């Protein structure tokens, strides 16, 4: 193993992250890690849209997706009956995306499944170490955003 002798090398980090991704279930293209029968991107989009109708561009920014990928994702949500598009009254070129009644129901189910799964996962972490796990995840998120 290259790098640090304390197990904090890039290789050790990579191995640990890949092992977590596999164990958590992030590699299944048709099921979220929490068991919802949909791609993870759709589940995350539903989560974002629970906060209210958004310009499609803003949805894409929040999901860190390109314009074309966001458009395809919204097309999929619309085809499933979970979302709709409407012209943005403030910008005639933009589209607002929002959840349908069925989308609200599905988004609530995804949120419940996520809370249940993550609660069970956190319960397996010793109580004294939980704040450190959360701090580490926040630090990794910040580092990932800086990398982009």
Could you explain the architecture of this structure?
The protein has 6 helices and 3 strands, in the order ααβααββαα. The protein is mainly alpha-helical. It has a 3-stranded antiparallel beta sheet. A hairpin with a 2-residue loop joins β2 and β3. The longest helix is centred in the C-terminal third of the chain and has 23 residues. The protein is globular and about 55 Å long.
Q: Kindly name the structural category.
A: mainly alpha
Strand numbers in spatial order across the main sheet: 1-3-2
Describe the sheet with the most strands.
Answer: 3 strands, antiparallel
Q: What is the share of helical residues?
A: 55-70%
Mean of pLDDT: 90
The radius of gyration over CA amounts to 18 Å
- What portion of the residues fall into strands of 2 or more residues? 5-15%
Tally of separate helices: 6
Record field, number of beta strands: 3
Shape: globular
End-to-end C-alpha gap: 27 Å
Report the order of strands and helices. Answer: HHEHHEEHH
Low-confidence stretches: none
């Amino acid at each position: 193993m290259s790098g640090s002798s304390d197990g904090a090398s890039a290789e050790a980090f990579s191995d640990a992250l890949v092992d977590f991704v596999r164990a958590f279930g992030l590699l299944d293209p048709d099921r979220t890690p929490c068991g919802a029968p949909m791609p993870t991107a759709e589940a995350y989009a539903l989560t974002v849209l629970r906060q209210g109708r958004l310009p499609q561009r803003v949805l894409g920014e929040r999901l860190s997706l390109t314009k074309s990928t966001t458009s395809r994702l919204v097309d999929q949500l619309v085809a499933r009956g979970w979302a709709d598009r409407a012209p943005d009254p403030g910008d005639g070129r933009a589209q607002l995306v929002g959840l349908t009644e069925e989308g609200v129901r599905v988004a609530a189910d995804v949120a419940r499944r996520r809370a249940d799964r993550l609660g069970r996962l956190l319960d397996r972490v010793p109580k004294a170490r939980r704040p450190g796990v959360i701090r580490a995840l926040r630090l990794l998120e910040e580092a990932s955003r800086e990398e982009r």
